[in-house]
Write a structure and sequence with these properties.
The complex is a heterodimer of chains A (about 280) and B (about 230). By secondary structure, chain A is mostly helical. Chain A has a single domain, classed as ABC transporter involved in vitamin B12 uptake, BtuC. Chain A is built from 13 helices and no strands. The longest helix of chain A has 26 residues. Chain A is globular. With about 230 residues, chain B is α/β, with parallel strands linked by helices. Chain B has eight helices and nine strands. Chain B has a six-stranded mixed β-sheet, with helices on both faces. A three-stranded antiparallel β-sheet of chain B has the order 2-1-4, with helices on one face. At the A-B interface, helix 8, helix 9 and helix 12 of A face strand 5, helix 2 and helix 4 of B.
Chain lengths: ~280, ~230
């Protein structure tokens, strides 16, 4: 045990490890907040679709040799988020299919681009693997990226707190909110933009294939146990932060890929909360 | 000027007319029940009154200083709500958002009003309970309390008794009548013509076109009222 602690202490002397922990926790916090909304709005699959769009956008940024790839990834993802959430309102089967098409389409095109225009001094499969599963990119964050992540996370949390009651109203009953004069279009737009931002950020942490886990697992786990919106939101946020920190620390100690380890921690959290929920359900309230 | 005036309204989706030639007005204190079969355009009419849909032609106007956004609305329950983690208090409070302006949080006034409305509908003891774990009748009361938070003059109710037991249905109608007697103007959609004939003051019977519009007393004596088996039970 003390050996592990000593090892952790050693690793945390490196700034990039500290960055990874800070950014990882912040991203996990934001994604869990938005995840509650996505899950309750029945839009879980949109998070998944967006993450693949972000992968495609990253491929384009790499091909165009844009060093700060966020400049491409963020706007493209936001654009598609607005498009999907707008369509999603009226979507039946076709909207569903559209998201699936977009999602695999972006994945395929992204991979083709990576192969046609390989990065100057990198290997294709390594880069693609990193983008899909996050593996090491969290440890290669520059100081600018850390600042960007911190600022964007802060904005997301502040927006969420300021619009909390409106987000609740729009999620619980959009028709009622609109009928009583709420600007539901605007709130949906804000939700879409924020989700896109979180997805683009989270790609650094867990890679584009695993982002959905960060969005969905904490929300679903919290819903197993808690029964009011506020408690679900707080619990999801806390659980997500704990799982992210745990995942990062374990990955350092055990040498496992960061993103996958965080997701594994989320899965573990889900089972624990499921058990808790069952136990709680048996006791008459 | 009436509280709500509907003139030559035609309703529909993408050019397909669902109902047309609707003209009626609702005065303060009225209890108008809109009856008709499924697909006769009742819900479409209500959505148009609430500005959720645009009419094909004609117009809906509010009067006596009633803002369109200050009409309380009791929608039919959606699938999403059936497993939504929300406390009764959270749901009821969300009704008063149209009074929030730019304030991101609820004021004391809004909280007290939510409490009063819960008390009025007998659900105050349920305030911290989870919405999805309530019975159908209790859920309707919660949504009704939320609607009251949005409005204190006019309520639109869309099939308030859908899916309720006969006894609970009766309770619900009594509650709505009490609200009407306390001064609220009620617009209710129902396919339950008998209940409409018992509680409403005015009836609009639609079936693509308006078949009848007038007071309840005239309705039960009319051909259409007789045809639908209304008993004279005034």
């Amino acid at each position: 045990m003390s050996e592990n602690l000593a090892m952790l202490k050693y690793y945390f002397e490196f700034p990039f490890v500290r960055y990874a922990l800070i950014v990882g926790v912040l991203i996990a916090l934001c994604s869990s907040l938005l995840g509650v909304v996505l899950v309750l709005k029945r839009f879980s699959y949109i998070g998944d679709g967006l993450s693949h769009v972000a992968f495609g956008a990253l491929a384009i940024a790499t091909v165009l040799d844009i060093t700060d790839n966020m400049l491409v990834v963020l706007p493209v993802t936001i654009l598609f988020a607005v498009f999907l959430l707008r369509g999603g309102r009226k979507a039946k089967i076709q909207g569903d299919a559209a998201i699936a098409m977009l999602s695999v389409g972006a994945l395929a095109v992204g991979y083709i681009l990576f192969n046609l225009f390989p990065p100057v001094n990198g290997n294709v499969s390594g880069d693609v693997c990193t983008t899909l599963f996050g593996s090491t990119s969290i440890l290669t964050l520059t100081q600018n990226e850390v600042w960007l992540s911190m600022v964007l996370s802060g904005v997301v949390v502040v927006l969420f707190v300021l619009f909390y009651h409106r987000v609740f109203a729009v999620t619980f009953d959009e028709n009622f909110a609109e009928a009583t004069g709420q600007n539901t279009g605007l709130y949906n737009m804000i939700i879409a933009v924020v989700i896109a931002t979180v997805v683009a950020l989270a790609m650094k942490l867990v890679g584009s294939l695993l982002i959905s886990a960060l969005l969905i697992f904490p929300a679903i786990s919290a819903m197993r146990v808690f029964r009011s919106f506020l408690s679900v939101v707080i619990c999801a946020a806390a659980l997500s932060v704990v799982c992210a920190a745990l995942g990062i620390i374990v990955s350092i100690l055990a040498g496992t890929p960061v993103g996958s380890t965080i997701v594994a921690a989320d899965i573990l959290g889900f089972f624990v909360f499921s058990l808790l929920g069952t136990a709680k359900g048996r006791v008459p309230a | 000027m009436a509280l709500l005036t509907v003139e030559n309204l035609s309703l529909g989706y993408e050019g397909i007319t669902v109902a047309e030639d609707l003209t009626f007005s609702v005065n303060s204190g009225d209890y108008l029940c809109i009856v008709g079969e499924n697909g006769s355009g009742k819900t479409t009419l209500m959505k148009t009154i609430l500005n959720l849909m645009k009419p094909l032609s004609g117009r809906v106007a509010t009067g006596e200083g009633l803002q369109p956004a200050a009409i309380g609305y009791l929608p039919q329950q959606t699938q999403v709500q059936k497993d939504f983690p929300a406390s009764v208090r959270e749901v009821v409070l969300s009704g008063s958002l149209n009074k929030s302006g730019f304030n991101p949080f609820y004021t004391k006034v809004q909280k007290r009003q939510a409490r009063d409305n819960m008390e009025r509908l007998g659900i105050l003891p349920l305030a911290t309970k989870c919405y999805r774990e309530l019975s159908g009748g209790q859920q309707q009361r919660v949504l009704l309390a939320r609607a009251l938070g949005a409005a204190d003059r006019m309520l639109l109710l869309d099939e308030p008794a859908a899916g309720l037991d006969p006894q609970i249905t009766e309770d619900m109608y009594m509650l709505i009548r009490q609200l009407n007697e306390s001064g609220l103007t009620i617009l209710m959609i129902s396919h339950d013509i008998h209940a409409a004939a018992r509680y409403a003051s005015h009836i609009l019977h639609v079936s693509r076109r308006p078949l009848f519009y007038g007071t309840k007393e005239d309705y039960v004596l009319s051909d259409i009222g007789q045809q639908y088996g209304c008993k004279v039970a005034v």
